[in-house]
From TrEMBL:
Pfam families: DUF4440 (PF14534). The keyword Signal applies. The lineage of its organism: Bacteria, Pseudomonadati, Pseudomonadota, Alphaproteobacteria, Hyphomicrobiales. Keywords: Signal. Gene3D superfamilies: 3.10.450.50. This is Uncharacterized protein (TIGR02246 family).
Amino acid sequence: MRLVKSFAFAAVLLLSSALSATAQSAREDIEAALTKFTDAFNSGNAAAVGQLYTEDAAVLPPDGKRVDGRKGVEEFWQGAIKGGMKNLTLKALEVEESANLAYEVGAFTLDVPSKDGALSTVAGKYIVVWKKGDDGTWRLHRDIWNLGAAQ
């Protein structure tokens, strides 16, 4: 009986540490993807930004129409870059994972041009649903944001 209890306890510890490592890994992978996103956006590479999304991704911009598909998402971000938006920063505030899906709540800042061309910094918040592909890569699947303080 004592052996069974010891085995059960060891199994619970092993399982909980494996689950913890998986959640930690998802956050680390998503934070690494955020770095790739900001680097690509800030260097003007909308194609690289688009590759961070799933094939059937959707972005839901504030006061704008939903944009579907990786190609549409890439074109959306190309328009933002050509429109003079720059110096994007992203910060994950929360990341929760379940199986091959995760959600992230975060904050951003971005420099946007006014009609006279002067840049002003805006801040906002976002939620992204991430989807883990068969290759083990986390990609943005649904992306929505708006302006205003994150907390």
